[in-house]
Amino acid sequence: MANVVVVGAQWGDEGKGKIVDWLSERADVIARFQGGHNAGHTLVIDGKVYKLHALPSGVVRGGKLSVIGNGVVLDPWHLMKEIATVQAQGVEITPETLMVAENTPLILPLHGELDRAREEAASKGTKIGTTGRGIGPCYEDKVGRRAIRVADLADEATLIARVDRALQHHDPLRKGLGVDAVDRDALIEQLKEIAPKILPYAAPVWKVLNEKRKSGKRILFEGAQGALLDIDFGTYPFVTSSNVIAGQAATGVGIGPGSIDYVLGIVKAYTTRVGEGPFPTELLQADGTPDADGQRLGERGHEFGTTTGRQRRCGWFDACLVRQTCATSGINGISLTKLDVLDGFETLKICVGYDLDGERLDYLPTAADSQARCTPVYEEMPGWSESTEGARSWNDLPANAIKYVKRVEELIDCPVALLSTSPERDDTILVTDPFAD
């Protein structure tokens, strides 16, 4: 049976939530493999809106096992609030339907405090645009071998030792930033209080998923954010603090890479970005505000972050960037989303290359100064006046919309497997079923 990884192939916000939900009907297990609650998915099911941040999108589907893997960093207080919110919407969440890896690092209040203090202290031009939720500092503690993990909550002596080790690092940092030292005893009490609420969900995820795979169950691996925010292959340093690309799916839950059968990249029919960093095709006026086309994309696409509410920066489709992410994630097919947002544009543009000081490039260079000097080389295509919203077959699409999709396939060197034409899960054109045996 096929196991599928879903990754965002741009800067995030591509519509992964709907696609994961759409695919989850065919899956037995939905596993989140990286990121924190700084990312968010919005699901629309029968007109009901669910906003998820830490929980895998599969929780809204009955009869499925949802998993938070060790590649995630988890704020336990946020998780319990999110569970309560979703339960209030009529969704059943129990230790039988939700599982958290025992080796998942915990985001503590001190992580968010450090995150925000650093961003406030950053000089102009060096701000990352972090959400301030402590994701980066928690990943730092993980690789620094001073993180507190879910399993540590089960033993008080171990928990206290882990807290003391973490504070040996954090208190000097806080002093340098002018922040008071952590109240050690209060933190320990907070953790002891949350422990009995989180521990019922704890499990050896690596073992469970390997058993599920061997018994022929279908696993859907869900990523957060987008590949252009990957700590190694994104637009560094304006990236997230984890690996976002598909290879992380294996490490993030504890299975071998041979267990992955299909990688589906989610790609918006235009490009958006939240926060700081390079964005070659961003549509701006001379004063740095969105131009008419950029404003139109943002308004028609409702481009505001699920988690932060921040307005997203908007631009034309960048085929060079998507071709890069298709390569670094080994994407087999893409799901092209929000095609309907392009309805009514007389002319559409696609970035097919960059000009760097007179040299033509077909990829975005790694060096930040080179990225900043890259200007997009555009190919223009005629738009369409007809509506594509709600289309469920190729016959429902205008001829120019089909030509646009086919040109995108050619330029990114990857086929379209799914085409999404509205937030509703059934408004989807299936070309290739990623779960096909």
Please summarize what this structure is.
This protein is α/β, with parallel strands linked by helices and 437 residues long. It has helices at 16-24, 76-88, 109-121, 135-143, 156-176, 184-198, 205-214, 248-251, 292-300, 319-328, 368-373, 399-412, and strands at residues 4-8, 29-32, 41-45, 48-52, 65-68, 98-101, 202-203, 219-222, 262-268, 271-273, 313-315, 317-318, 333-337, 347-356, 359-361, 375-382, 416-420, 428-430. 30% of the residues lie in helices and 19% in strands.
Could you give the topology of this structure?
Layout: E1 4-8, H1 16-24, E2 29-32, E3 41-45, E4 48-52, E5 65-68, H2 76-88, E6 98-101, H3 109-121, H4 135-143, H5 156-176, H6 184-198, E7 202-203, H7 205-214, E8 219-222, H8 248-251, E9 262-268, E10 271-273, H9 292-300, E11 313-315, E12 317-318, H10 319-328, E13 333-337, E14 347-356, E15 359-361, H11 368-373, E16 375-382, H12 399-412, E17 416-420, E18 428-430
Parallel strand pairs: 1-8, 1-9, 2-5, 2-8, 5-6, 6-7, 9-13, 12-14, 13-17
Antiparallel strand pairs: 3-4, 10-11, 14-15, 14-16, 17-18
Helix pairs in contact: 3-4, 5-6
